[in-house]
Amino acid sequence: MFELRGSIVPLVTPLTHQREVDYPALEKLLAWHNDASTQGLIILGSTGEGNLLTEEERAEVIDFVINASNHTMPVWVGVNDTNPDRVLKLIHQAADLGAEGVMVPSPMYVKPSQAGIISYFTHLADASPIGLMMYNVPSRTGSTIDIETACILSHHEQIIGIKDCQISVDGMAQYQNAAHHFEVYCGNDRDMLVCLENGGAGVISVIGNLLPELVRALYELSVLGVHHKSAALDSRWQQLIGALERMSNPAAIKWAMSERGIISPYTRLPLSPLNFEEEAVMTEALEDLAPLWTFNPDYDVS
Questions:
Q1: What is the rounded distance in angstroms from the CA atom of residue 64 to the CA atom of residue 41?
Q2: N or C: which end of the chain has fewer CB within 10 A?
Q3: Domain membership of residue 77 as a residue range
């Protein structure tokens, strides 16, 4: 078992022009993240277009990533469905293929009460053979996992923590004071420093797909308490974060990666390519980061 801590990347799923999974590109990504000292991967989440792949495709991707990464870092799997039985089926699929754990958002669309969210996650955790991370992302699900609810659920031995997209100083204090053996991970790139400087275990950063070494450096600087340097580094990518927030994920980050020769920009429906105006915004946001690129399109995976 790996400790899930530090710079954790919600990995994109590279696709070919025919919108099939691009396994050679995925292999290069994994080699790059290994050399960049990325400390964990979450695959098939929203950034990985996990709910746009079939169950069979998901199995193939999970198996490929776990084997190609050669067990050098923890691999967690995003699982998203409204029906608990289907969620459990995907949890067991991930467990059978060797994943360390699963990340599960609150059920989307149905807008459950906090009591319903507690029952839902308890039901999943009782039946899960691997660790479960809750995911609080109201902008996508239409429901919020309240901090009090998360702290109640933290007492379940299979629930290891939460990826929270609503990080605040006061919220982090509530987590630290009430949660039980429970880790908090930043789910919003704009709030990485708030999370890390107030007891967070790590960041699950979309821009880690583009700048993995620097997101790892930000984490290490924060751990060391060198806050003026971590703040200076964090300021470098705020324009990019702002641009990404205005566009669909992962279409925007995939476009940025394609500009650097890392992967193709293709996504699956209903996601669509960036328009010319969006490309112009992204181009401007990327200009100041040009000296920081490290990926070589001819990356050696041998």
A1: 13
A2: C
A3: 6-210
Residue 14 within a domain: yes
**Which of 28, 120, 135, 219 is the catalytic position?**
135
The reply to whether 243 falls in a domain is: no
For residue 136, tell me if it sits in a domain. yes
pLDDT in tens, 141-183: 999 999 999 999 999 999 999 999 999 999 999 999 987 889 9
Q: Catalytic annotation on 135?
A: yes
Token pair recorded at residue 141: 């699900």
pLDDT digits (tens, 9 = 90+) for 35-87: 999 999 999 999 999 999 999 999 999 999 999 988 889 999 999 998 999 99
Annotated binding site for pyruvate: 47, 204
For strands 40-43 and 75-78, give the pairing: parallel
CB 182 within 8 A of CB 158: no
pTM summary value: 0.94
Task: Look up the CATH number of the domain holding residue 154.
Answer: 3.20.20.70
Query: Is 120 part of the annotated catalytic residue set?
Result: no
216 within a domain of the structure (yes/no): no
